[in-house]
Amino acid sequence: MALTFRQLRYFLVLSEELHFGRAAQRLHISQPPLSASLRQLEEELKVKLLLRNSKRVTLTPAGEAFQRQARRILEQLEDSQTLVQRIASSATGLVRVGFTPAMLFRGLPELLKRLQSRYPGIEIQLIERNSADQVEAVMQEQLDIGFIHSMPLPEEIESVILSDEPFLCCLPAHHHLAGRRELAVKELANEPIILFGRDLAPHYYDRIIGLFHHADVKPHICHEVSHWLTILALVANAMGVALVPQSLAKAGFSNVSFLPLTDSTTRHQSHCIWRSDSEEHEEIRQLLLNCLKEQQQVR
To answer: What is the CATH number of domain 93-161+270-298?
Structure first.
């Protein structure tokens, strides 16, 4: 006869109480079925689990080991029951999520893990696109949700802030300014600057150029790229310097230094966006926004 979960539960309660009367009371059964269950369990295992006399009940060494295993098995069973119940009762469906690579350092992975842990029935498809393409895809309902850099949005698009952060100066680690605790934008007047091409990200381009103009500096733009991570890679290879959002300091690049700017209060925002009149996946979208709100409160 194979072991049953009932036998495990009966044994576990008995091993905790070490008293047949109290264990039977907890289990809402009489003592004879409890004794019979223990006897069957010991016969199946071919070991003695309990020793008892007229005064006391004790666990054998084998009983102590089996108590730990039984507890672990029943906890796993309970977790499995909870999981399948959540899957059966929670939101389900595929949600298409757009993102730019830099969002990986702004809490997006943690947010999506939180959502899927809480609602296992939701399937997430990540689609990498730049911010402007995401806005267009959301408008065309090719994406359900997007995570973009701050930019002007059509009236049909709603958004909430994912992150709000200052700009830092990113320098090669061996640059003569890298040892400083902070620096001013005006000190970059003669430095080769790495920046997005304006055709790819006009809003970003104009904001960063504005930082230089505010410092009365005409930037020497030597390289134009299409991704923030490309900027960091070029800086790491001593190809120039750049002004980047603070979260990119978490990207893990070696051979770079990040310094606060003393003469800039300009900040960068990232947004979660969706089409306001789209009813598809509305429930999932609201669950994700709830998780985002919780994540920001924890921070």
So the answer is: 3.40.190.10
Domain spans of the chain, in order of start: 5-89, 93-161+270-298, 165-268
Q: What is the CATH number of domain 5-89?
A: 1.10.10.10
Q: Which two tokens stand for residue 160?
A: 């909430």
What does the block give as tokens for 234? Answer: 């070029």
The answer to whether 93-161+270-298 and 165-268 have equal CATH topology is: yes
- For residue 212, the number of C-alpha atoms closer than 13 Å in the C-beta half-sphere is 21
> In terms of residues, how long is the chain?
299
Residue 46 has pLDDT above 80, yes or no: yes
Q: How far apart are CA 61 and CA 51, in angstroms?
A: 10
Contact 264, 188 (CB under 8 A): no
Structure tokens at 108: 């997006």
Q: In 140-276, which ranges are continuous DSSP H helix?
A: 202-214, 228-236
Alpha carbon of residue 211 to chain centroid = 32
Tokens 């993102």, located at residue:
99
Cα separation, 268 vs 20, in Å, equals 67
pTM, whole model, 2 decimals? Answer: 0.63
Give 184's contacts (C-beta < 8 A, 6+ positions apart). Answer: 215, 261, 262, 263
Side chain identity at residue 155, one-letter code: E
CATH 3.40.50.620 fits 165-268, yes or no: no
Q: Give me the residues paired with residue 146 across strands.
A: 98, 273
Task: Give the least confident one: 35-44, 107-116, 189-198, 202-211.
Answer: 202-211
